[in-house]
Amino acid sequence: MKILSRSFFFVILSSLSSVGATIDVFDFESQAATSVPTHPGALTSLVLTQGGLTMSLSRQSGVAFDISDNNGFGPGQFPPSFGNRSLDPFSN
Length: 92
Hints:
Number of domains: 1
Structural class: mainly beta
Largest sheet: 2 strands, antiparallel
Helix content: under 10%
Distance between the termini: 14 Å
């Protein structure tokens, strides 16, 4: 099974002042997996907050998606650098 975005990170630059910025990384590591062993399409939106910023994810027309447990696909399917969770858009 292929996952469209094996490691799905959002990097947001947020301005702290007129001379500096910080990087906030959004990932799915703290999210509960919803797609192992099946892909029910458990989510229609997901809100993540990191470093004082909030990101809302949804698909066009309210189509469902899942958070995949990368460890549930067997050894060697995902490199360790992908982390434990990924966005899984294949519920439909």
